[in-house]
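Can you give me the bound-state structure? Components:
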Amino acid sequence: VASEDGRETSVLDCGCGTFGLKGDYLALLLGIDRTLVGWASELGAAPRRYPTLISTETLLRTDYYTSFPSQATFAVRAVPDVHAELKAVVGEARLQGRLDRPTSQLRPALCYHVYEELAGKVVGPELLVFTTGGPCYRHEDEPARLTRQREFTMREIVLVGDPEAIRERRLTLRRRSEALARDLGLEAKAEVATDVFFGTASRGRLLYQRERQLKWELLQPLRQGDPLAIASFNLHEEYFGHAFGIHRDEARSLFVSTGCAAWGLERWVAALVDRHGPEATRWPETARKLVQSGAPLENLG
Amino acid sequence: LTEAEIRDCLRDWIRERAQGRLNGELTDESPLLDLGLLSSLDVTELILYVEHLKGDEVDVEALEPGLLTNINTLYRGFFGD
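Here's the bound-state model for the whole set.
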């Protein structure tokens, strides 16, 4: 990694709160992702590639707009009336009031697509495991490179079925993630956490989530500022089974439980750089191996 | 309200709220979450009810873990001080 004025240059500031990666940082991100895909494979996960767009109808079913309204990033075209003069309208920042009705937005997480895929189905007693990865989008008022981006890369393993089996897999993934963090020379610890819910119902949801230990976050202490959540391990109980009508039995009397583990890949890079510096030659051996395993994928972008 | 009255109020509220989900007697040791007597939505309403009883706002962030275990922990957690 080349350095200029002591500042790493493998992060590309792409404007509007988004950042790109190149070089060793990108290879590390891809190497970590490859490791996670390996874990998913060992759990028998079915791979998925979903679109980055998700319908607002699907997110309405999840109550996303009540819980996280400030993060929603809609995908919407300009109304036909202004197409002839769109360049001028955009250039003069006159788009307000000239946008079409949004029916989709950029996905804020990956697992919603899995529930959408299974909506209305009977999935039976076996545990279903899926994995999917790619960019996710959450509006941030104050974006920060690698740690708090409006677009970031996530890998998820999604668990659907029996609650005990989901709890067991969640614990397995937590332990493997803690071990990987240790191998990378990080001090990350998993702790009970809560989402930052919005609105009047937020206190009850927060308290319930905390009491049930529905969310664990793997938190890496940073040299400055709050610890960074680099992964989360979540139980949703029957929330999404109910929301999407996904049942465990033909009689449709039992809703499935769901859970997911999610890794914010740029944050793993951020944690490593914060701990060991920007030069890959000074990274722990495990990190250097991950760079090597990710490097062949780098050219694919 | 006395402690006994508050406990009565909490038991009555949960019985009312958990109609159809409560099989058998509700005691002060009944495990509320494990028995499925409190959902996420119930907890939101419970906080409002506790604030009504206390006449004061509840700071959720300051509550000790284990609060929702049973009536005993609810009483101690919300009204103990």
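A couple of observations. Helices of chain B lie at 3-17, 40-54, 71-79. The interface with chain A takes residues 33, 38-47, 58, 60, 63, 65-69 of chain B (CB under 8 Å).
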